Amino acid sequence: MSAASVRSSVSENIQSQVSELEMIQAVRTLLIGLGENPDREGLVDTPKRMVKALKFLTQGYHQSLDELLNGAVFTENTDEMVLIRDIDIFSSCEHHILPILGRVHVAYIPQGRVVGLSKIARICEMYARRLQVQERLTAQIADAIEGLLKPQGVAVVVEATHMCMVMRGVEKPGSWTVTSAMRGLFAEDPKTRHEFLTLIRHPPTFR
């Protein structure tokens, strides 16, 4: 069993031992620790809403590639680059559970198999909807597409702003983090990599 499978299994076992009521109570405890009264009118339903929101923001833990793809992988005799750029993502930093807002650019060079374009965006969203670090998110997207299609190459670039840097800590609004993962031809052939990077070049602004 791989390390990732072990981590997933451990997480599922821990989760199965924690009820939603216990999660709600934990949020109430946090509010009290912050000096608030969780029973006042504005906060009385906040623990329940926060648990619901966190479950939505981390729903990627309960999704799988098979479910997302739903058979949308097709045989196609093409070897030209396929690029889907500016895929908006919303993730959460695993260190502070604060938002990561950004966009993903994904390209691959087919080798007899292509995937429905919307599925690329869904793969990005599945991994983003977890507690993340940007470096791992970038690699997970690239590895998923490489494993799924066995293409000649995969390239992924993630540009994101991290609220843990903007709202707290160094407090640097306007800072962007860029990570990349290159596989196959994109790693081996400078011309192919340059073409991809040229096609996605633009000022990093979040819409």
Number of domains: 2
Distance between the termini: 41 Å
Number of strands: 7
Biggest sheet, in brief?
Answer: 5 strands, mixed
Order of helices and strands: HHHHEEEEHEHEHEHH
Can you identify the CATH superfamily of the largest domain?
GTP cyclohydrolase I, C-terminal domain/NADPH-dependent 7-cyano-7-deazaguanine reductase, N-terminal domain
**CATH overall fold name of the largest domain:** GTP Cyclohydrolase I, domain 2
The percentage helix is 40-55%
Average of per-residue pLDDT values: 90
Spans with pLDDT under 50 lasting ≥5 residues?
none
Q: Mind telling me the C-alpha Rg?
A: 20 Å
Percent of residues in β-strands: 15-25%
Question: Numbering strands along the chain, what is their spatial order in the largest sheet?
Answer: 5-2-3-6-7
Based on Cα principal axes, name the global outline.
Answer: elongated
CATH class category of the largest domain: Alpha Beta
The CATH architecture of the largest domain comes to 2-Layer Sandwich
**Structural class, from secondary structure content?**
alpha+beta
Question: Can you count the helices?
Answer: 9
Description:
Helix content is 44%, strand content 24%. It contains nine helices and seven strands. The strands form two sheets. It has a five-stranded mixed beta sheet with strand order 5-2-3-6-7. Strand 2 and strand 3 form a beta hairpin. Helix 2 (20-33) packs across helix 3 (46-57) and helix 5 (117-128) packs antiparallel against helix 6. The radius of gyration is 20 Å and the shape is elongated. The termini are far apart.
